[in-house]
């Protein structure tokens, strides 16, 4: 069969797309109306619930801000009184605390002091008939019982003048008032030194609904001398509720746990008239049916104050939220809205959306043929671009610059453009891992770096110069390439990235571009694997009479600059910074100590006990003023022999003696460590250094660090 006949197999795309659209449209018409309305109603209900919870929290916080200053006011007074800074037995000193307290807290209506003998002093705000507010004070003292056994209170009132003086407005008046009988006084005494909220209850003077914060005051002798009390009127809360910006028909109320009305957005005359024996207004009997029926639903247990929306009959949707328990105020915020208002817009929008959907469907049927032809054209453009990519012709043209009307076609075009971006970036990158990250991101590579914690390794061939001079250059190059391939394999296997070949060594990194918290551990395990692999290769080459190499490695971890470094058109992915330079210095220290695997401080900190290491020395490397502790990597816990562990313990004991300037004892301990293993390069170096320092003692300010003067 000819290739032409193969190309024409199957139905035309235009016919398939048009038929599919017609079938889908016919099925969608029957379902779209119900779905749109149901979805809109659920969305409105969910949004209202979240908005109501936010409004309840805002209302509670606003109310609490009215009352919160009373706590610090009462407790500061208690501290001053307990410390003897003020004598509340002296009425004049009491005035000197009460008056500034009222002036400093604009939400207070009364700031009062009630002594245990019944004497009562208060400073309070008094609304005048002309709209102004005066500051007054009252002094009340109990008289002895009269002939009938009644106890009367004699009192006087003063009013503050503009110049701060006080004018007597009532003198030697008589009433029956004992503060010790008030709920706020009894609650404070019972609380034994803790502040307590009481109310709502009727305030004695102005017959207004009020809330009280009281605290029993104890003197230096620990005895209760009286009670501090700050009093608030509930009226401002209703004013706050009236000022809220709510949806049409919605209202916010505040009631207490017993259903007494605290605040209403319409505090009309008569709403707070005294309707029960306590002088409080029951919310369930309010003339506002939305409040009354919502509270009755809560009191019957049909709903709970659990911050979840609930229906009140068929008329209202409501939400109730308690004040936080830590505030000590047992109040509830109620938010209610007529369901007709809540869902009216949803119903309107649903009907509108349904008509729009039907009209759109009809138009879609008409345009199906046109769109399907454009779809076929879009697929053709993608096919042609992929054929060019197959030939590695990476043009700058982007398919997404001419988007299709079909999402799937745009997805294919975007994927094609992303692939082209990655292939173009491949021309600038060497490491495959970096190119992979770029292709996955779909972002073309550009110059730029970021701060990131990584682990960086440098390697070097042992005695490379000597072997280079003694062998044919071609043989050396072949051996080096084979050696570097072995190292590369272990780097890639542990998720590392080989950044650069550095002559006979290389620079590698873990932790970028792909992040990983275990980068230090993976790098250390790569170091061990590279050491084993290079040794195995060297042994195999020696057996075959070929050139082989041993490896020295230095590894350091820390934060550095990682990213694309170079010229705009030719750059490499690399890492630069102080910790990178330190890694290079660590590799060089192997020559000094006769070791092969040296780690920096941060690397050892990151790997913890996952691997076995030996603390080698405290050094100050060339180019750095600070000192650092260097370690030797010994191996996996299961691979390190008991002898090596014993040697390590003796070595680190010797280091402690060395740093304490006990050089001869340190030399003996280093010798013991060397004997365990039958020889050890670091022990040899440290013994020589101990002998020299014993003969040539260091300066008094010597910090124990060895200064390395070469790289």
Question: Could you explain the architecture of this structure?
Answer:
- By secondary structure, this protein is an alpha+beta fold.
- It has 5 domains: 90-234, 2-Layer Sandwich (Beta-Lactamase), CATH 3.30.450; 236-341, Beta-Lactamase (2-Layer Sandwich); 394-426, no CATH class; 444-574, Nucleotide cyclase, GGDEF domain (Alpha-Beta Plaits, 2-Layer Sandwich), CATH 3.30.70; 609-711, no CATH class.
- The chain has 18 helices and 22 strands.
- It has helices at residues 3-7, 13-67, 69-82, 91-104, 183-191, 235-242, 289-300, 339-390, 407-426, 432-441, 464-470, 473-493, 519-543, 578-593, 601-607, 642-659, 663-677, 681-695; strands spanning 110-115, 120-127, 133-142, 153-160, 166-175, 196-202, 209-218, 224-233, 251-256, 261-263, 310-312, 316-322, 331-338, 448-461, 497-502, 505-510, 551-566, 571-576, 597-599, 612-620, 628-635, 706-707.
- Strand 17 (551-566) and strand 18 (571-576) form a beta hairpin.
- The longest helix has 55 residues, at 13-67.
- The protein is flat, with a radius of gyration of 43 Å.
- The protein starts with a helix and ends with a strand.
- Mean pLDDT is 83; it is low at 1-7.
